[in-house]
Amino acid sequence: MTESIAGLEHQFETLEQQHEAGWLGMWAFLATEIMFFGGMFTGYVIYRWAYFGAFAAGSKDLEIWAGTLNTLVLICSSFTMVLAVHAAETGERRGQIGFLLATMFLGTVFLGVKGYEWTTLFRDHHVPGIGFHFSGPYQNTAQIFFSFYFALTGMHALHMVVGVGLLTFLLVKAWRAEFTPAHHAAVDIIGLYWHFVDIVWIFLFPLLYLVDRHR
Amino acid sequence: MSMVQTAPSYLEDGHGLASWLLTRDHKRIALLYLVSIIGFFFLGAIFAGLIRVNLLSPQGDLVRPQTYNTFFTMHGLIMIFFFLIPSIPAVLGNFVLPLMIGARDLAFPKINLLSWYIFIVGGLFTISAGLFGGVDTGWTFYTPFSSIYSNSNVVLTVIGIFIVGFSSILTGLNFIITTHTMRASGMTWFRLPLFIWALYATSLIMVLGTPVLATTLVLVALERVFHLGIFDPSRGGDPIYFQHLFWFYSHPAVYIMILPSLGVMSETITCFARRRIFGYNAIAFSSLGIAVIGFLVWGHHMFVSGQSVYVGMMFSLLSFLVAIPSAIKVFNWMATLYGGTIAFDTPMLYSLGFIGLFTVGGLTGLYLAAMGVDIHVHDTYFVVAHFHYIMVGGAVMGFMAGLHYWWPKITGRLYPEVWGRLAAIITFLGFNLTFFPQFILGYLGMPRRYHMYPPEFQALNVLSSAGASILGIGYLLPVIYLLWSLRRGQVAGPNPWRATGLEWQTPSPPPTANFEAPPVVREEPYSYPTWEAQID
Amino acid sequence: MSGVTVSRKTYAGVWGSLVVLTLLTAGIAYLDLGVLNPVAAITIAVIKMALVALFFMHLRYTRIRLTYVFTAAGLLWLALLMAFTWTDVITRHPIVPPPPWPANDVTSHMSIFKAK
Amino acid sequence: MGAVLPLFPPVASTYARQEDLLFYFLVAVTLFFVLLIFGSIFFFAVRYRRRTPDERAQPTRPNLPLEVAWTVIPLVIALVIFVWGAKLFFVAMRPPAQAVEVTVVGKQWMWKIQHADGTREINALHIPVGTPIKLILTSEDVIHDFFVPAFRIKRDVVPGRYTTAWFEATTPGTYHLFCAQYCGTNHAAMIGSVVVMEPADYERWVRARTSPVLPASAGAVLFQRLGCSSCHQTNTNAKAPALAGLFGQQVTLADSRQVTADMDFLRDHILTPGKTPVAGYPQIMPTYQGQVSEEQILELIAYVRSLARAERSQGGS
Question: Do the Cβ atoms of B308 and C80 come within 8 Å?
Answer without folding.
Answer: no
